[in-house]
């Protein structure tokens, strides 16, 4: 985009504005791995299918608290043959990977131990996130624009003049919604697995606040200062 070249009669000022807010997360994402293992492929597949259905039922039972539920991958394959009693035994291993997003963190605290209490089920997470259309992103942008105008005015006032017109306003290094944002956090991958069946209880989870940042570049004209 081409702008008029600045002259003594139409001086310009270019500033960067930054907006930063901390907000409570709106979503919690977990990853679940369901496994089955045995000598014959057919029983392993049947066992994996049953366990997968049970895990999906547990998650779906949370109703509206579940914002998204997806199966991310399925595999069943033989492991390296093992020797036993004079012959080589082939073991088959199966896995199903599931991801779920929940909006109710109390329901999440109840769900995670129930899932981890099941045989050959592992739970990873949680990852605390914002919705892609979260108002937090718009608020950070508004703060960034406000800061850019404040800075530009401060420069103009230092020259005993005032701003004229806005020539350009653009994002500066702003990630798309849902991406990791500057000043945020890197979730720690945590695996949950019960030592003994029947130990499920409510897990007290403390959501991590998200830091949302936005940066803009703004260019203004100024009234000619009397230097």
Could you tell me how far the N terminus lies from the C terminus, measured between alpha carbons in angstroms?
30 Å
Helicity, in percent? 10-25%
Task: Sum up the overall morphology in one term.
Answer: elongated
Number of DSSP helical runs = 3
| SS class | alpha+beta
Instruction: Determine the strand fraction and express it as a percent band.
Output: 35-45%
Give a summary of the structure in a few sentences.
The protein is an alpha+beta fold and 227 residues long.
Plain-language structure description:
This protein has 227 residues and is of the alpha+beta class. The protein is 25% helix and 38% strand. The chain contains three helices and ten strands; from the N terminus they run ββαββββαβαβββ. The protein has helices at residues 41-60, 105-116, 135-158, and strands spanning 12-23, 27-38, 66-78, 82-84, 87-89, 92-102, 121-129, 163-171, 191-192, 210-222. A five-stranded antiparallel sheet has the order 3-6-2-7-9. Strand 4 and strand 5 form a beta hairpin. The two termini are 30 Å apart. The relative contact order is 0.27. Mean pLDDT is 85; it is low at 174-189.
Topology record:
Layout: E1 12-23, E2 27-38, H1 41-60, E3 66-78, E4 82-84, E5 87-89, E6 92-102, H2 105-116, E7 121-129, H3 135-158, E8 163-171, E9 191-192, E10 210-222
Antiparallel strand pairs: 1-10, 2-6, 2-7, 3-6, 4-5, 7-9, 8-10
From the structure above, extract its key features.
elongated, 3 helices, 5-stranded antiparallel β-sheet, single chain, 3-stranded antiparallel β-sheet
